[in-house]
Amino acid sequence: MFSALRSSILRPSSLRAFSTSATRQHDLAKLTLIGTLVREPESRFTRSDKEYMVYTVATTDYPPPLPDNNGERPRPTSTFHRVLSFSTTHIKYLKTLRKGTKVFVEANYEVREPEPGADPSTPRGQRQIFLRQEAIRTLTQPKHSDYQEEPTESSSGGSKLESF
Quick check: 86 and 54 in contact, CB under 8 A? Predict the structure, then answer.
């Protein structure tokens, strides 16, 4: 009995080679970012007049650079991620965020290859990575603001975690 089971499990036809596997409906590409908003999210409109938001999250590159000959570590570098949001609920929430807000972002990403024959100095002639926001959470508010605001539970040191 076990030999029949073992032979059916170990048959090469039941094994799946990753490089030749067909794409599955539930395959996905996700990116998780924990970083700081570089500026306030910006409202834009599609050609069909649908509103969406664009914002940039700066993340610190890890691991930090190795120490130099003097034993001092250079400042860590940052990467800037441009994120798009099309959800009306997220758009309303993003309009409340300010520059310097520390956020946790989950995004799907899509890589678009350059169009054949396109000028390499234009966006259509370059590889593009599109990050489409799925979720965002505020981790901390900016420490300094340009304007005075009424104290709230989250800005007065409470541990309120906002998410959408």
Answer: no
Where does 70-151 show beta strands of DSSP type E? Answer: 78-85, 102-112, 128-140
Query: What burial letters (b/e) apply to 13-30, b meaning 16+ CB within 10 Å?
Result: eeeeeeeeeeeeeeeeee
Could you give the CA distance from residue 110 to residue 131 in angstroms, rounded to a whole number? 7
b/e burial code for range 62-77 (CB count within 10 A of at least 16 → b): eeeeeeeeeeeeeeee
Do residues 13 and 80 touch, judged by C-beta distance below 8 A?
A: no
Pairing of strands 78-85, 128-140: parallel
Are 102 and 35 in contact, with CB atoms under 8 Å apart? yes
pLDDT tens-digit profile, the chain (164 residues): 555 555 555 555 445 555 566 666 667 789 999 999 999 999 999 999 999 999 999 999 887 778 888 888 888 889 999 999 999 999 999 999 999 999 999 999 998 898 898 898 888 888 889 999 999 999 999 986 554 444 443 333 333 445 55
| Phi, psi of 10, rounded to the nearest 5 degrees | -90, 0
Task: Compute the CA torsion angle 53, 145, 163, 133 (nearest 10 deg).
Answer: 30
Side chain identity, residue 88: T
Task: Kindly report the pTM of this predicted structure.
Answer: 0.66
